[in-house]
Amino acid sequence: MNATSLPTITHDPATWPKGDKLWSIARAIAFAEGAHKQGSNPDRLNNPGDLSDDFATYGGEHHSGSNITKYPDKRIGWDLLRNKLYRISLGLSKEYKPEMTWIAIAHLWAGNWQAWATNVAANLRVSPNSTFKEYILS
What we know:
Blueprint: H1 21-33, H2 41-44, H3 55-58, E1 60-63, E2 66-69, H4 74-89, H5 102-109, H6 113-124, H7 132-137
Antiparallel strand pairs: 1-2
């Protein structure tokens, strides 16, 4: 399958990537960030995780107290979100550790950390007090 035949990703969750547990976490984060709402910042900016990691490379907008990256297309945004989660799972992230709870991750990831942790955990069907690593290993 070449890049031109890949399915189009939109704000509709039915079009979002899926497959393994990292994709499940990415989808849960995208829901918590509002990527399923047409015209939302994550939708407009092709950035389902509301990431600021690549702002210097791609540019973006300032909102929610951060410089949020605008990716060229949704596939890049989704792939970079999954890559961030992959790095966390390997213990390679400088900010996030696999042993962190969803609440601890939320404190660093989101302004409204309580709602974010609740939404991500509910989507994954785990407790907000459980850890990233516990989910990956379950």
